[in-house]
């Protein structure tokens, strides 16, 4: 009887421990939604692994920074990219699209458990590592070989993942563009007027943090 009671108590303790562990892990995931002209993309963010990057992103979302911005860089079989404020509603000088961001830059925040796999979300930046601001991209395929840190590259900071709406991201990625960028496999800021979508421009209508 005592043995059975001890086993039961052990099971309860282990069960509670697992529950608390899972609950703790879940608190380090935020949920969001990207509303686009092509449909809805559900995402999750990882503040426990990329706190500065997620905090910057959420702050921009809450200020409606991303509302009505164009997916200004579309690279079929690679990435789709947005976050340049001069693309708002498809206006401005589209020869400069992709050159701009918010007023605040953030440090390159790399977590070894996060990779540029298909559907993961990461920050675009200039050649210098600590130059990400507001532009981000969704990986349409596994780009870890070219975009993760290596001996010759510091990589691109991953901070979230698409959980639903991959078909929407692919639909945007399949839209016609004005031509190919010579820097095809580098989601940089300021690479010139290429890989831009043709009209009607695909937009980020809004982004919301849902949980």
Description of the structure:
The protein is α+β, with helices and mostly antiparallel strands. The protein has a single domain, classed as Beta Barrel (Cyclophilin). Helices cover 23% and strands 21% of the residues. The protein has 4 helices and 9 strands; from the N terminus they run αββαβββββαβαβ. It has a 9-stranded antiparallel β-sheet. The longest helix has 25 residues, at 2-26. It starts with a helix and ends with a strand. Mean pLDDT is 88; it is low at 6-14 and 16-26.
Short description:
The chain has 211 residues and is of the alpha+beta class. It is 23% helix and 21% strand.
DSSP strand (E) fraction? 15-25%
Shape verdict? globular
CATH topology: Cyclophilin
> Which CATH top level class fits?
Mainly Beta
Let me know the number of strands: 9
Fourth-tier CATH superfamily name: Cyclophilin-like
Q: How much helix is in the residues? A: 10-25%
Number of helices: 4
Structural class of the helix and strand makeup? alpha+beta
Major β-sheet strand ordering: 3-9-1-2-8-6-7-5-4
CATH structural architecture: Beta Barrel
Radius of gyration: 20 Å
Estimate nothing, just give the exact number of structural domains: 1
Low-confidence stretches: 6-14, 16-26
| Overall average pLDDT | 88
Largest sheet: 9 strands, antiparallel
**H/E order of the elements?**
HEEHEEEEEHEHE
């Amino acid at each position: 009887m005592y043995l059975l009671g001890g086993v039961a108590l052990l099971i309860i303790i282990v069960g509670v421990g697992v529950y608390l562990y899972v609950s703790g892990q879940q608190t380090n995931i935020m949920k969001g939604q990207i509303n686009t002209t092509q449909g809805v993309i559900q995402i999750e963010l990882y503040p426990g692994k990329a706190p500065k990057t997620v905090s910057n992103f959420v702050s921009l979302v809450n200020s409606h920074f991303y509302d009505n911005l164009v997916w200004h860089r579309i690279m079929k079989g690679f990435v789709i990219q947005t976050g340049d404020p001069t693309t708002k509603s498809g206006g401005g000088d589209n020869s400069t699209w992709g050159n701009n961001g918010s007023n605040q830059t953030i440090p390159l925040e790399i977590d070894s458990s996060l990779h540029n796999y298909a559907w993961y979300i990461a920050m675009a930046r200039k050649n210098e590592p600590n130059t990400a601001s507001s532009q981000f991209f969704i990986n349409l395929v596994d780009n870890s070989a070219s975009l993760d840190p290596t001996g010759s590259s510091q990589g691109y900071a991953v901070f979230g993942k698409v959980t639903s709406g991959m078909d929407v991201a692919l639909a945007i990625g399949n839209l016609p563009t004005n031509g190919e960028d010579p820097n095809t496999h580098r989601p940089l800021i300021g690479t010139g007027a290429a890989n831009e979508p043709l009209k009607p421009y695909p937009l980020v209508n809004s982004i919301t943090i849902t949980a």
